[in-house]
Amino acid sequence: RAHGETRPLGSPDKISFSAFADDVIALMDYLGLAQAIVGGISMGAGVCLNLALRYPDRIRALVLSRLAWLDQPHPDNLATYVEIGSLIQQHGAQQGLALFQQSAAYQRLQDEAPDTATSFVGQFLNPRAEEACIRLKRMPNDVPNRDRAAWASITVTTLILANHNDPPHPYTYGEIAAKLIPNSILKTITPKSVDKQTHLREARGTIRQFIQQEAQHGTI
User: Fold this and answer.
1) Is-contact 186 160, C-beta < 8 A?
2) CA–CA gap between residue 211 and residue 63 (Å, rounded)
3) Residue 42 contacts by C-beta under 8 Å, 6 or more apart in sequence?
4) Count of CA atoms in the C-beta half-sphere (13 A) of 12
5) Contact 86, 186 (CB under 8 A)
6) Which of 143, 158, 163, 186 has the fewest CB atoms below 10 angstroms from its CB?
7) Is 165 exposed, middle or buried (0-12, 13-18, 19+ CB in 10 A)?
């Protein structure tokens, strides 16, 4: 919802972690999948957390990459997404981008985390930017769940990927999740801002190895 080519946008009230998780379960039901390995990046990792907590019997193993949420809404690391959503709503995508690129925050990101700056610009360049920008304002105000202590109830093996130099995805979030989720493995990978291709290669390789090891252990 409000991502990719998913149409129609639907009710704004359904732009939430729980609704997205329910959508995944509906898809699994449609495909006849009793269980699945689930994994996601950033917001997708939050959806997977929601799934694991609300539908634990449907999860075989879990992959959480570059967490952007813990258990509190309005995290500082996501404030720029809300700002971008407001700029698009108030000025349109083209003028909103011009205003954003004039900001001190954008100039600083270009120096410190250029991949993040490029990602933010991409929000304005999305062909559906003006239609779907509601997600940029609603999702940072939501959370996968509101009590991180509940993460201790996750029993499946969980791979957590994190990297430094990635403002929307603090490395500390990965560390916190690894401490709270009992059967978890934290892997540090190269930031995109250092080398995007190395980042992708390490992420894919680590996930592939994780799935292979779980298969050998008979978990999946």
Assistant:
1) yes
2) 10
3) 65, 66, 67, 68, 168, 169
4) 9
5) no
6) 186
7) middle
Residue 69 Cα to chain centre, angstroms = 8
Is pTM beyond 0.85? Reply is yes
Rg of the chain's alpha carbons, rounded to an integer? 18
Chain position carrying tokens 């990101």: 109
Of 52, 81, 88, the closest CA to residue 141 belongs to 81
Three-state secondary structure along 149-206? HHHHHCCCCEEEEECCCCCCCCHHHHHHHHHHCCCEEEEECCCCCCCHHHHHHHHHHH
Query: Alpha-carbon distance 171 to 145, whole Å?
Result: 19
Starting at the edge strand that comes first in sequence, how are the strands of the sheet with 36-41 ordered? 36-41, 59-65, 158-162, 184-188
Tokens standing for residue 20: 């997205």
pLDDT-based confidence at residue 216 (cuts at 50, 70, 90) = confident
